[in-house]
Design a protein that fits this description.
220 residues; globular
């Protein structure tokens, strides 16, 4: 059971939606990046999400987590926590469980037959929570990025998924993404057990890689 795609294409759609509904003014900050962003805990809501997924398929297993930080004073939308689930008993589609801080929603995402089945993410596979990953990223370049680049289309996301390192190895990581639509971006990859920074990847508006940190070699 192996795959090189961390989560389904739904994550890309999620990030695009974050662009479309996240408003940040350039003259006056729309929110306080040092403490005004709400990030839901993936750990606190893991069991409930899994229970709901097992109503879809008894052998459902999580294959990805996505969290969207939200300004606490923004009335247009709520915080966003999404769990992606897959199952060995079906070859088509996956199950999405979403929580906005108040209500749960879930649905089947029809994707067609799996070419490669996603790797399971067990609860014991990560001890660093989404809230922790967000704080670590802010302290290691994320806050500076937001203060310097706040634009009307600022996307922010915290994702737990497997990433391919080298030709064979898959590594579970938290990826915290800061992106300006059609502008610069910053990705910070974090060890889900220790909270250490594995790698940072910053790109300019043209997409050129800006002084990335070396990727830490995979653990044997």
């Amino acid at each position: 059971m192996d795959n090189g795609v961390p989560m389904h294409c739904g994550v890309l759609i999620s990030l695009l939606l974050c662009f479309l509904i996240s408003g940040c003014q350039t003259e006056e900050h729309f929110f306080d990046v040092t403490g005004d962003l709400v990030v839901l805990s993936a750990g606190d809501h893991y069991d409930e999400a899994l229970d709901r997924a097992k109503q879809w398929r008894e052998d459902a297993y999580p294959s990805g987590v996505f969290v969207s930080p939200t300004p606490s004073e923004e009335r247009a939308r709520k915080p966003w926590l999404v769990f992606d689930f897959d199952s060995l008993s079906t070859s088509e589609g996956s199950y999405v469980v979403e929580f906005d801080g108040e209500a749960w929603r879930s649905w089947v995402r029809e994707l067609g037959p799996h070419v490669m089945r996603p790797t399971p993410i067990g609860r014991d596979d990560w001890s660093v929570d989404s809230i922790d990953a967000w704080s670590i990223a802010l302290a290691n370049g994320g806050e500076d990025f937001l203060l310097h680049y706040q634009e009307p289309m600022t996307g922010m996301g915290v994702q737990l998924s497997y990433r391919r390192v080298g030709s064979e190895h898959l590594r579970l990581e938290w990826t915290v993404d800061f992106s300006i639509l059609f502008g610069p971006s910053l990705k910070i990859f974090i060890d889900p057990h220790t909270g250490d920074i594995i790698e940072t990847e910053e790109r300019s508006t043209s997409g050129t890689l800006v002084a990335p940190t070396p990727t830490r070699p995979p653990t044997p």
